[in-house]
Amino acid sequence: MKSSKIVLGWCLSVGLFGGLAGCGSDRAEIKEDRLTVGKVQGEIKVGMSAAQVAELLGSPNIVTTDDKRREVWIYDKVSTDRVDTRSSSFASLIILGTSSQDSSSSQRQRTLTIIIKYDEDKQVRDFAYNATQF
């Protein structure tokens, strides 16, 4: 009887300590920051500063200049999604058994290209985007 109380007390102590340890930790919040057409359409506006664009979209893949030496930022993103599916079945009759397994996979590739053109004061003067999926 006494040993079961000790074990119970020990379990409660470990559980309480583990719970408190989890509450006291500082965890960095994981934020999925995905570059999408919707983000460009909804948040990029003519007149925004280059710093505001960089805060929203991150660093561009390519920075170049046009014929008047104004900056042009290009974001070029490619992603591939692959889905694997498996199904199996098993049937048995007292002694005999049979099993089968089917698998298939599909792959989808998406591209997103964003071109942001700045004026002499590093303000957005124009932007365009192209998205494909195949």
Q: How would you portray this structure in words?
A:
This protein has a four-stranded antiparallel sheet, with no helix packed on it. The radius of gyration is 28 Å and the shape is rod-shaped. Helix content is 28%, strand content 45%. The chain is built from three helices and four strands, in the order H-H-H-E-E-E-E. The chain has 134 residues and is α+β, with helices and mostly antiparallel strands. The protein has helices at residues 2-24, 37-43, 50-57; strands at residues 62-65, 71-93, 96-118, 124-133. The chain has a domain at 34-86 and 100-133: Beta-lactamase Inhibitory Protein, Chain:B, domain 1 (2-Layer Sandwich).
For this entry, what is the oligomeric state of its chains? single chain
Number of E-type strands: 4
Low-confidence stretches: 16-32
> Which second-level CATH architecture of one domain applies?
2-Layer Sandwich
Main beta-sheet annotation: 4 strands, antiparallel
Query: H/E element string?
Result: HHHEEEE
Question: Shape, please?
Answer: rod-shaped
Secondary-structure-based class equals alpha+beta
Our count of helices gives: 3
Task: Please list the strands of the largest sheet in the order they lie side by side.
Answer: 1-2-3-4
Compute the gyration radius: what is it?
28 Å
Protein name: Outer membrane protein assembly factor BamE domain-containing protein
Organism: Nitrospira tepida
Keywords: Membrane, Signal
